[in-house]
């Protein structure tokens, strides 16, 4: 049974605390690895929250860092235990981007730029099915359905009665013009996008082709921010074989500034909603 504890976020918080203890001790990751007879990459993965951490790992690290307060050790051990629990997404089997889902599940706000497709949180089921089947042609029907189910479950953050996700989406016009599935499916998708954009916590803006070159030409990315001040923001960049997570303040700041430029250059909210509605009408003209 999955619990309400978010293992991804717990691993991340635990990793941040272990990094803090190492730095207080004045040790490098390489020095810690030598003491514990493990690889430096393991220490790095534990600290960035990308690897499950056992209570034994915590005990060994606390020993190296000479943590004398047993309450601190007990707290870290409990975090390690919680971090090994399963989130809701584990019920669907091996989800390729499970780390991202864990972060998204706990995020307070999400800023997304997508130049090619409608973001997953705003997709209709038929659009999601056609998109996944087209993007992953060698995927078995059962696996496609599993991915669609995960995507639909993720959308519950938008409709949550308490503390819904604050979503800001900037789309390139190409995402609206690319016919995924068929024209009827696209009309329904864009009408749904207009409907969702009217929610108070959802903002949708469009960058039309006429704008020309703009700061988002390098590709899709998302910026996640969290309700707990101790959790630093994360920039997520999706890849084909692996994903990239940027957490350094300088990197997050650079992408945040770029996003502000995208917002400023895009059509405003009302103009964007009308722009999407007009394209939806074009799809209705079969």
UniProtKB/TrEMBL annotation:
Xref: Gene3D superfamilies: lambda repressor-like DNA-binding domains (1.10.260.40)
InterPro entries attached to this UniProt entry: Cro/C1-type_HTH, DUF5753, Lambda_DNA-bd_dom_sf
Domain of life: Bacteria
Domain HTH cro/C1-type: 18-72
Pfam families: DUF5753, HTH_31
Protein name, as recorded: Helix-turn-helix transcriptional regulator
Annotated organism of origin: Streptomyces neyagawaensis
Classification of source organism: Bacteria, Bacillati, Actinomycetota, Actinomycetes, Kitasatosporales
